[in-house]
User: Fold these one by one.
Assistant:
Number 1:
Amino acid sequence: MIGHTARREEERRRGIFTRRAALLGAGQLALLGYLGSRLWSIQQEEGEKYTLLAEENRLSARLMSSPRGRVLDRQGRVVAGNKLNWRALLVVEQTQDVAATLETFSRIVPLTEAERLRVERELRRRRRFVPVVVREFLSWEEMARIEVHAPDLPGILTDVGHSRTYPEGEEMAHLVGYVAPPAERDMDGDPVLALPGMRVGRAGIERFHEKVLRGRAGVAQLEVNALGRVIRELDRREPLPGEDVQISVDAVLHKKLRAQAKEGTTICVLDAKTGEIVSLVSQPSFDPNVFAAGISPAQWREWTSTRSTPLINKATNGLYAPGSTFKMVVALAGLEAKVIGPGDRISCPGHLDFGGNRFHCHNRRGHGAVDMRVALKASCDVYFYHLAMRLGIDRIAAMANRFGMGVDLEIDIPGARRGLVPTRAWRQQAHNKSWGLGDNIIHGIGQGWYQLTPLSLAVMSARLATGRAVQPHMTRAIGGKPVRGTKPEDFPSLGIEERHLQLMRSAMFGIVNEGGGTAPRAKLPPSYGAMCGKTGSVQVRRVTRQQRERGYSAERVPREWRPHALFVCYAPHHDPQYAISVVIEHGIAGGKYAAPVAREAMITVMDHFRGVTTPQPRVAENRRA
Amino acid sequence: MSGVYERRLLTQDRGFGLLQKFWQIPWSFALLTCALAGIGYVALYSAGGGPEVYATKHATRFGFGFVLMLTIAMIDIRLIARFAWAGYLLGIGLLVLVLLHGNVGKGAQRWIDIGPLQLQPSELMKIMLVLALAAWFQRASYERVGNPLFLIPPAIMILVPVGLILKQPNLGTALITAMIGGAVFFAAGVRLWKFALILGAVGCAAPIAYDHLRDYQKARINVFLNPESDPLGAGYNIIQSKIALGSGGLWGKGFLQGTQGHLNFLPEKQTDFIFTMIAEEFGLVGALGTLALLLLVVVFCFLVAMRCRHQFGRLVALGLGTNFFLYVFVNIAMVTGSIPVGGVPLPLISWGGSAMLTTMLGFGLLMSCYVHRDVEFTAARE
């Protein structure tokens, strides 16, 4: 009975179970089938897309920076090189206790609190296996001590990188420039700039030849894991080291010239025929090594706020009125325009009255009736007042431009100023006023709105000496190959009549070497040949009538009121070798103070090159400094 | 009276000796488990970059598990049914213990240490629940199953472990446990309208429940809905897993050649993402092959359920089959980005002693169902 009921009941249960189990089983089968189709769509239909993504995951290109090219002086001395930078690095995952390791480290090589904070900050940002720089620029002794204590310093590694070094320090800073970590504006699309420790040229040759010096980064194709850890290297393109750049400046000579220049003095020495820059001295200067290591804000403020502006290369960026050194340009413009003949005399009573103003000659008693040569020799202002009024500013400006003033000299020093030679159009544009006839007067003696660099004055001097459009430049060779032409024939003629130039040269000879000249102090000893030059003294402040009546003397006024002293020259007279310009800020008088500096510089340069043969640029075999 | 009847049956079975039982063991299924463990060995060999990290130990564990499985296979199913209650209470006890003294992993208390073994009681609980429910319904006629009052105790039997697992908190396992219980209910013949009622209630409660989820659980759901929204954060796993699968293509990159797995782009490649390793190195062919073998296990479970002549065995086989299916489905759906990441291992293939132990325990019970498919239980009560 029971069995029968139970069996019937059992049949019923089984029937229901079977139906429902079939339903469940079918559902599960369908769901697993769905998974199969998912796999099909991911692995087959989208397979290519994911294969690409997997490759991207796997591969990582690492850039390797190339050693920066060096800057060599005329004799092949290194003036900007690379030094080995020994560094201590910390890898977190290799140490049990970061704090303890740093503590031990600081007992071996003292760490400042700021350094320790920086390290801890960087450690937090990086992955555990990425090394963080604990200390750079370790000395040999410090390295030795770290190596000896290596067992006590788990996680500390040492390695060697490169850092920029300037063996000449502040001596060559204005020419060679300096490097600094790249800023936003330095990013020129070269990915290597993103590497830690990269530096870019910020001034001088370092900046002008940035691309050449930087070289090309190497690339390593690496296989990386999910954390970015390198598993192996798949491919590698070696970095191409930057090329060495040789400049025309001789470091030893440059140093001698710098020693002769006081603060505020600028000396430009050009090879008169080739335009090669022999030296550009701008005092004071700065130490570019400070930038390579990373400049402190305090140092930066000091250098940028001080009046002596050490960061500025005054030879290319200092702007001055040329004063009387400009008179040759006015004279040549007059001769070419035929508004005056070489022998035409103009009477100088010591002043010129025009439009209610009295324009004084530097000689209050006047020079009498003077012709051009005498007017230049004695630097008669009244003669040039008259001449300038006959010429008008535009013809003077055109001649000045031909002498390299107020134009871009295309020099290989970035940021060099072109200066300003005023014209009627400029006056209209800049001040919205028309050029007055009276404005010509002071512009005839190189005063007024002129803003010229000492370098352009040296260029004028070289062009007067050669009659050619000599271009100043500093780069002698790149990667051992000489660059552009250094022969005088490469430069086109200025197109000025030779007899006019000869008159100028004769006058400049007289200024230094004849009685009545304004620069007897620039006369060279006979063995050096004859110097030709022109003085200039530029008022920075108007001298009032009261001052004149009380007996004005530039030597007795406060320094910043004193006139600038200028001198331009070349030598020797008949075979010009070197052209020099000297500008002494607030140096009072060109003839008295600038001329002797130029004379000493000329002697130094000639002495230096007498018997010194400049080696032809050769391929530098040994790149490592 | 029933006791006498039962004893009689047992004496009748005296001739059913151990040797006979041994020959009754479904050896084709045993072979199937070996094949899957072999796949696990290969995948773990690759994941560890050699046998010593995972693979050897995996094989050893499987060996122990295999013996355990065969041993359980020969235990009389009626004995198992009688002690199902004890097993259930043990499971509950362990769940309480894990809440009190468990090890915290990923913000949840899930493990307890038993000697060298890290046991995840929720895994054991699923099997014990299946046994207990099967034992309950074994004695119930269709009419009794229709009585709502009769369903209250088994419903509580489901809700207690589900509640404890939720408290860990482990939403995924709690849901899976509830689903297994539901499957047993369904197969036992609980009326369909009751399921409709419960599903409706759950549907209404879901938005409220979402508010009570932990942040990481919400993150999982949100990331699942849009994995690319956070490629380096919570969505990273899903994206990297899909990249590994997709880059495997039809034939795969070859044994030990998978880049995603070997370069550690795959998270937890030896456990939850082991299937991805297989799919990357052996391609769609390897992946579908593995999936087919896993499917065979599920099919076998249902076949055993159909063959059983007693309700207990049927429900146990179906419940264990559903349990296994849910492991496989959740794991593979997770690595293919079809459902939120849930931390479910792939049975027999993933690395892990606790999972291997519970899987083999389940297989042992399943085999016992098969071996004892024709034994007679006491008749169902009226």
Note: Residues 274-307 of chain B form the longest helix (34 residues).
Number 2:
Amino acid sequence: MNGITLQTVAADLDRLPALPEVVQGLMDYLQRPEVDVAQVAHKIARDPALAARLLRVANSSFYGLQGQVATIHDALVVLGLRAVCTLVTGAALASHLQTLAAGRDQRAFWSHSAGTALCARALARERGANAENAFTAGLLHDIGRLILAARHPEAHHRVEAHRALRDCYPIEAEREVLGFDHAQIGSALAARWKFPAEITAAIAWHHRPADQPDGSFADLIHVADVMAHALDFPGGAEDLVPRLSSVAWNRLGLSWKEFERLLGEVDTQRGDAELALE
Amino acid sequence: MVLAADVTSGGSMLLPRGTVLSAAHIDSLARRDVLEIAVLARVERSAAEIEAMREAQERRVQQLFRRAGPDATMQALQRAVLDYRLEKLE
């Protein structure tokens, strides 16, 4: 008897603190075909903590612009409007989610999330996809796992024990112990928090990209997830590189040489991945 | 020479980590009374050390792919990851 069902987990999501208004607003705003610098600067300036975080992260080598960004306006000019929105929403979402799981050791989770975000952004740039949404989707792809650990610790411990005993993939342990997985939990949260459709699809399908049509973000986040594990985000003796879907890989159309070049690109940014999410 | 750490003065960033230092950079830092900087140094490794590092990377990749099975895509991925890690050592 596992004690919880996907329905009870989903129902519990309604009891989570709502997403901060500024984050929701920026996420919605990013989906528009045209965005306005003054509007975005105004939204960010309303939240001083967010503005400070923006400047700190923009000046880290995570964004490759150390020391060049002194004001919100600078950040908008130097990084570009959409990149700033992504940075701010990503940092604020991470901060909000860190609060939900306060008291738990989240380092491995956020190391993997930040690594996947970097990989997703690199892949999106390579394929001409929306790099901002790719980054956010990478950052959030495993939020279901964080929710399970934070809200249902006993179930999470049983999944972990099963995984350790069998040395299997974490998602297999979830399905075998619970009958559902973190992608389903994350998808339910993404729907409640009204994430953009592209990001919601990536969260829901990143372990089953072949079930989505060609061009879905699920392909990109699936491969980014694999890349991140291959680069030891998070590392550790128990870590496994997930099974790469040949369908997703072929649809992305990368050569192995291009893949290796992207591994190198992300590897150089790893030092500040955690800093960006502190 | 490549900077191993950001160079700051009075809270301002002068040069970011990763900058390839020119004579002009060094003159400029001296004019600003920057007395110390950290630069990356090439470490000369023995053949035995390089071999030990190669073996460590091979073991790590094997560990990460221990559940991969005979799938052709996974085998190609594993080769690419190992190639990348070994090239990084060179």
Note: The domain at 6-275 of chain A is CATH 1.10.3210.10 (Hypothetical protein af1432).
